[in-house]
Amino acid sequence: MTKATQGPEESQVDGLWERFKATADQDARERLILHYSPLVKYVAGRVGTGLPRSVDQNDLASYGLFGLIDAIDKFDLKRGFKFETYAINRIKGAILDELRALDWVPRSVRSRARRIETSIAELEHRLQRPPTDEEVAADLEMDVEEFRDALAQIGRSGIAALDEFVSSESSTSMGEMIADPQGVSPESEYQAEETRRSLIDAINRLPSRERLVVTLYYYEGMTLAEMVTFSVSPNRVCARSMPRR
Questions:
Q1: pLDDT tens digits for range 222-245
Q2: CB contact at 8 A, 36 and 87
Q3: Could you read off the pLDDT of 12-64 as tens digits, one per residue?
Q4: Which residues of 58-87 are buried (b: 16+ CB within 10 A; e: fewer)?
């Protein structure tokens, strides 16, 4: 038995296998799943190495658990090899199948991206500098425009989690960089602030009595009758005040 599957005595595990395969006993099946479940965590950790941080390890383990269950159901005791060896391949296959199903990017795009990455790495090593587009295109036997179109297509296929940070040194997440369609743009906010300041400046340059009328009417929301109580004549109010929007 491997370290990942140590727990109950080997004879007890053998008994569970014999009982499950002979009678399809569900209790034995569940105990086998529980006993071998550390294999799922082990394989998920191996597969998850190198994947983007947006890929949750718990999700990988969930995919792998289905592979473990399938392995237990289909394992043939008479074949004479260890279950762990068989199960690890089934678990890994289940995880990879699910990742492929979730990946909406065509395989041709993924394949082309790998070719471009390999070419760039080889050219950098050979030239001791970053290669130009023309050099990479020539190495791949592509036209420059075709190469740039491929780069654009690969760029559009990228997926990032919204809770990921923009960089390792930044505390800003990708989600915070997305514009709010319901929000006010910085340009509009700046223009509104400039308009407000211009109005304040214009109002402050009015004679004191006219400034009082504007202030009472637009800022205090007072009516004509209410302004009269502040010793502002009705005729002057009507002459100087503008219609309310």
A1: 777 776 665 545 454 444 444 444
A2: yes
A3: 888 999 999 999 999 999 999 999 999 999 998 888 876 766 677 888 899 99
A4: eebbebbbbbbbebbeebeeeeeeebbebb
Please list, in sequence order, all residues whose beta carbon lies within 8 angstroms of the beta carbon of residue 64, skipping any fewer than 6 positions away: 40, 43, 44, 47, 91, 92, 94, 95
Q: What pLDDT score was predicted for residue 1?
A: 43
pTM over 0.85: no
Across residues 80-106, what is the average pLDDT? Answer: 82
51 closest CA partner among 91, 118, 102, 112: 102
- CA-wise closest residue to 19 among 72, 66, 65: 72
Q: Per-residue pLDDT for 2 more than 50?
A: no
